[in-house]
Amino acid sequence: MPKAQEMLYAVVGAGEFAVEKVVDARQVIDRQRSQKAYSDFVKRGRTLSTKIKNSGPSKQAKAQTKVARTQVKAAATSVSKAVRANAKATRSAATKARKAS
């Protein structure tokens, strides 16, 4: 697992842990306890992140984002085609105007 992701899980887990309990400050001083607390935070963060990722609202948001991305891409394609068509029509009109004069 990438270190950055592990650290993110640790932060999320630490947040949840803080909401659940008040940690005795002496635990942080002891290195062994700190390592255990860190591992616990990673575990809690991973669990909480998985719950959020698998929740219904998160899945709906992901689906809506995918639909919106598709719509934006389609709109960009339409605008691009319209610009090309407009440029072609402008060139054609300019050519006809030159021939007529």
Please describe the structure with a list of short key phrases separated by commas or semicolons.
single chain; 101 residues; mainly alpha; 90% helix; rod-shaped
Structural overview:
- The chain is an all-alpha fold.
- The chain folds into two domains: about 1-55, no CATH class; about 55-100.
- Helix content is about 90%, strand content about 0%.
- The chain contains four helices and no strands.
- It is rod-shaped and about 90 Å long.
Task: Set down the secondary structure blueprint.
Blueprint: H1 3-20, H2 25-29, H3 31-53, H4 56-100
Helix pairs in contact: 1-3
Structural class: mainly alpha
**First-to-last CA distance:** 72 Å
* Beta-strand percent range: under 5%
The number of helical segments is 4
Name the helicity range: over 70%
Topology, number of strands: 0
Shape: rod-shaped
The number of domains: 2
Strand/helix succession:
HHHH
Low-confidence stretches: none
Mean pLDDT: 82
Radius of gyration: 28 Å
How does the major sheet shape up? none
In short:
This protein is mainly α.
